Structures are given as structure tokens and as C-alpha cells.
From TrEMBL:
Species whose genome carries this gene: Soehngenia longivitae
SMART domains listed in its UniProt record: PKS_KR (SM00822)
NCBIfam families named among the record's database cross-references: 3oxo_ACP_reduc, PRK05653.1-3, PRK07231.1, PRK12826.1-2
Oxidoreductase in keyword set: yes
Protein name: 3-oxoacyl-[acyl-carrier-protein] reductase
Pathway terms, separated by semicolons: Lipid metabolism; fatty acid biosynthesis
PROSITE patterns (UniProt xref): ADH_SHORT
Biological processes per GO annotation: fatty acid biosynthetic process
Domain named Ketoreductase: residues: 6-190
Binding site residues for NADP(+): G12, G13, A14, R15, N89, Y154, A155, A156, T157, K158, I187
Cross-referenced PANTHER family: (3R)-3-HYDROXYACYL-COA DEHYDROGENASE, SHORT-CHAIN DEHYDROGENASES/REDUCTASES FAMILY MEMBER
Active site: residue positions: Y154
Length: 246
């Protein structure tokens, strides 16, 4: 098992890619803390993972609030004694074209997707630097690399995540901490399942592989980057897109 006895926090861990990543980490032997703002779904996922035999704890967290984030880190260290990896997966979308996007839509997406990653990364880094090791992984997106119609706010955050990741890699490398990002393409998540069929078909058509990605395929990337197999990889943004070109 590639992550045996490592301690990992996964934000946005109640469903979708976060849930799939938590399951993969459990299967790889990690002790997993799933954190999410949705308590009902969080508890359901915690029960599911424990049924698989996982050593799992759930924490309700608002990634935009530093006190909530610090509480998440503190409870993790209190229970497990260390923190080896954080996956900054929590994120939202509030789409609109540039001419119609409200200031509220801009602010909310920036707050969760960018400030949230900053707060979680900063709090986790303090623990990791003190122990001399750790991995910070953050969710970017193909949209952050190439842009997307109606997603000025989302694209800005996901490009920003890459910039933070590269900066953290430079700042924290000599202290034993690696930082990497993963940029998923169009993935078959519950959010995508609610989209019109013609939109989903369009997404599939953009990928040379001719399909949507599965949450498990993103989870596999996170598990690799969290493991010692990726010990010489830092400051990278791994595209897991099916070759999509926007």
C-alpha cells in the first residue's frame, strides 16, 4: 500500500472527486480526515469509508474561515499526531458570462476556490514544516489552463491555484514539503450528471478519448502525487483531461 499509515486531509471530501480520493487513500492504507461544509453528506461518506475498514474521521469545515480551517488541522494532529498530506479539493462554481457576472458571483468563487486553498495550504504547511515533511495537493482545472466560456471567476481561481502551488514548491522544498496541483478535465461528477445531455455530449466530444473522466481517475493522480513514488515531483500541475483541448 503506497500510503500506509500516512495521515491525509481531503477537503470537499463528502462527494464526487473528494469522496473518490478519500476511498482511494483508504485503500492505499492512509488514515483519512474528510472535511466538508455539508455535514449530512460528510457523515454518510464517513460511514461508507469505515465500512471499507478505513481509519477515518470527519470534520465540518468552512474553508473560507481561518478559525474553522485551523480547527480542522488541530483536530487532525490531536488524533493522529501528524499530517502528511492535504488535498485541497473543496470548490464551487457560479457561472456567468463576463458581461453578466455579478460581484457576488465573483467574490464567492474567489473566496472558496482561492482563499480557501490559501488558508488550508498555509495551516497545513505550518505543521509539515515543523515535522520536516509533507505534501500539499490542490485542485486546479483544465479551465484554469485554457479558460472556458462563462467561467471568468472559476478560471481565475484555478489558474491562481497553479501559481500558488509553484510558489509553495519554491518556498517549502528545502523544508521537506512538496506542493503539486492536479488539473482535471471534464469528470463524471454528480454536478455534471445534472447537466443537459447535449452539454455532456459536447464535453465528451472535446476529449480525444471520447468520454468523461471518472472521479477515480483523478483520485489515482492524487494518490500517486501523495506517495513516495512522486518524491522528486514538486511545483507540477498534472493534467488529467483525456487530452481535451478547449
Amino acid at each position: 500500500m503506497r500510503l500506509k499509515d500516512k495521515v491525509a486531509i481531503i477537503t470537499g471530501g463528502a462527494r464526487g472527486i473528494g469522496e473518490a480520493t478519500a476511498k482511494k487513500f483508504v485503500e492505499e492504507g492512509a488514515k483519512v480526515v474528510i472535511a466538508d461544509i455539508n455535514e449530512k453528506e460528510l457523515l454518510e461518506t464517513e460511514e461508507f469509508l469505515k465500512e471499507l475498514g478505513g481509519d477515518v474521521m470527519s470534520i465540518v469545515v468552512d474553508v473560507t474561515d481561518s478559525a474553522s480551517v485551523n480547527n480542522m488541522i488541530e483536530k487532525t494532529v490531536q488524533k493522529y499526531g501528524r499530517l502528511d498530506c492535504i488535498v485541497n479539493n473543496a470548490g464551487i462554481t457560479m457561472d456567468s458570462t463576463l458581461l453578466k457576472m455579478s460581484e457576488e458571483q465573483w467574490d464567492k468563487v474567489i473566496d472558496v476556490n482561492l482563499k480557501g486553498v490559501f488558508l488550508c495550504g498555509q495551516a497545513a504547511a505550518k505543521v509539515m514544516v515543523n515535522q520536516g515533511s509533507g505534501v500539499i495537493l490542490s485542485a486546479s482545472s483544465v479551465v484554469g489552463l485554457y479558460g472556458n466560456f462563462g467561467q471568468t471567476n472559476y478560471a481565475a481561481t484555478k489558474w491562481g491555484v497553479i501559481g500558488m502551488t509553484k510558489t509553495w514548491a519554491k518556498e517549502l522544498g528545502k523544508k521537506g514539503v512538496r506542493a503539486n496541483a492536479v488539473a482535471p478535465g471534464f469528470i463524471a461528477t454528480p454536478m455534471v450528471a445534472k447537466m443537459p445531455e447535449n452539454v455532456v455530449d459536447m464535453m465528451k466530444g472535446k476529449a480525444p478519448l471520447g468520454r468523461l473522466g471518472e472521479p477515480e481517475e483523478i483520485a489515482n493522480a492524487y494518490a500517486f502525487l501523495a506517495s513516495d513514488e512522486a518524491s522528486f515531483i514538486t511545483g507540477a500541475c498534472l493534467e488529467v483531461t483525456g487530452g481535451v483541448v478547449l
